[in-house]
Design brief:
about 450 residues; alpha/beta; Rossmann fold; six-stranded mixed β-sheet; five-stranded parallel β-sheet; 20 helices; 16 strands; about 45% helix; globular
């Protein structure tokens, strides 16, 4: 299998090349040339690790052996602190929560980033290559990436987060890691500003000539395929012929991972995209208005995003992989801050996705409702999805994604139910540690010079 770019459908790249590039040199995102098909029946009674191997292997088999992939997967999930890795919690008839916070940083990002870290280690072990990992985070990606790469030889890690716009726990999970290869930059701006800097640096020839930049955001294809696994895993736990997923969404990576699962044969009926008040995805798909508004700070900070990078992958697929169209569209969108999608494109996306926007008041109300009715405490990102699942009928199985441990968002939980959630011991420890970060202006050249000083 080879890989193409959303901005060049004629590109022919190998898996290892796209692994280290992260973002294509033309500014586009990588996708496989074809979608492998998976036999659901052959996955029945498989473990999470066996399911992961079956889903991921078709994408890497030319360059990573069957045996090595099994070792990488086993190493990735052996320390997750639930025997099912990603358990399904039955709320009521045909309504479930897929809990995805049993990795080392208590957020769904661990499921992909631990895997990505172990793939990097495997490949670098057999080469003399050194890489520089660069990522932007709206909260959880940063801590998950830092945990996955801390202390690894031949890897320098630079994570950009918006200054004073992530929760205290999210920040401390990043800034209290004292490994010498970890560098935290707090940018005076929004997540979108951080993400813009990252994208500009990936196509900057000067910095690329000095070091090999590698992406850890969900623009990296490996993140997407690793996240696709738990959609199959959730379905396999149930005796049903089709399923709806409700996915809280910011950068469109997690919901596109579900789309990949559907491409590969998972019988998904509807995919529900749930945004908070930063609702560009809801507006883009519901009425074709792809317009950047001012970023609002909410109780679900990991979703405080206006430019959703992975949405480009969906537009590419819904436009029948028309890279010329994508080039024109994205150039116009980034220059003007808005673009109207065609009726045909919107219609195709609406046949797959249903979209919703949930305000902070509804998030707090949902947290309280689920505590009172089910004795279940959810984090505010998860609550955006649960507020939608509440309104769906139970004729078809509905699974809403549990994004993070509620202990990471005590302020919102306390405001909703008037007491703090339990905090895992590993999270309590970070309040006793010294923080290490560099606060910087929102300036790409400044960030570039800082990175080049340190690599």
């Amino acid at each position: 299998m080879h890989y193409l770019s959303t901005r060049n459908s004629k590109l022919n790249e190998s898996f290892l090349n796209i692994l280290f590039q992260g973002l294509s040199k033309d500014g586009g995102l990588f996708l496989p040339s074809e979608w492998p098909q998976i036999s659901i029946d052959k996955l029945r009674n498989c473990s999470y690790q066996e399911t992961a191997h079956a889903i991921i292997y078709p994408y890497v088999k030319e360059e990573i052996s069957d045996y090595d992939l099994k070792l990488i997967i086993d190493k990735t999930y052996k320390n997750f602190n639930h025997q099912k890795i990603a358990p399904l919690i039955n709320i009521e008839n045909n309504k479930y929560i897929l809990e995805l916070f049993y990795g080392p940083t208590f957020a769904f990002k661990d499921y992909a980033l631990q895997f990505l870290g172990n793939i990097f280690s495997h490949v670098l072990k057999h080469s003399k290559r050194k890489i520089t990992v660069l990522g932007a985070t709206s909260g959880d990606t940063g801590s998950a990436a830092i945990n996955a790469f801390k202390g690894k030889e031949d890897i320098e890690v630079f994570i950009l987060h918006p200054y004073n716009k992530v929760s205290e726990v999210q920040r401390r999970q990043m800034t209290t890691v004292d490994e010498k290869n970890i560098h935290n930059f707090a940018i005076k701006g929004s997540f979108d500003d951080c993400q813009k800097i990252v994208k500009e640096l990936f196509i900057n020839e000067e910095i690329q000539s000095k070091t090999s930049l590698t992406a850890v955001n969900s623009i990296n294809w490996v993140r997407i395929i690793a996240q696709s696994v738990y959609y199959f895993w959730a379905f396999l736990q149930l005796n049903t012929d089709k399923v709806n997923f409700i996915v809280p969404s910011g950068n469109f990576g997690n919901i596109f991972s579900a789309r990949v699962a559907k491409f590969m044969g998972l019988p998904i009926h509807h995919l529900h995209i749930v945004t908070n008040e930063n609702d560009i995805l809801h507006r883009s798909i519901s009425n074709g208005q792809m317009k950047i508004n001012e970023v609002k700070e909410t109780y679900s900070p990991s979703m405080d995003i206006q430019i959703s990078s992975n949405f480009e992958r969906e537009i590419f697929e819904s436009s029948d992989r028309n890279s010329d169209y994508i080039n024109e569209l994205m150039k116009s969108f980034l220059a003007q801050g808005y673009e109207n999608l065609s009726n045909d494109l919107v219609s195709k996306m609406q046949s797959i996705y249903q979209t919703h926007s949930v305000h902070d008041s509804k998030v707090l109300q949902t947290i309280k409702e689920f505590k009172d009715k089910y004795n279940y405490i959810s984090d505010p990102h998860t609550a955006t999805g649960l507020s939608i699942m509440n309104n769906l009928d139970n004729k078809i199985t509905n699974i809403s994604l549990g994004c993070a441990h509620p202990g990471k968002f005590s302020e919102a939980i306390n405001k909703a139910i008037d007491h703090n959630p339990d905090i895992p011991k590993m999270l309590k420890n970070i309040f006793e540690k010294k923080e290490k970060m560099t606060i910087l202006e929102n300036d790409t050249n400044l960030i570039k010079s800082k990175i080049m000083e340190l690599v």
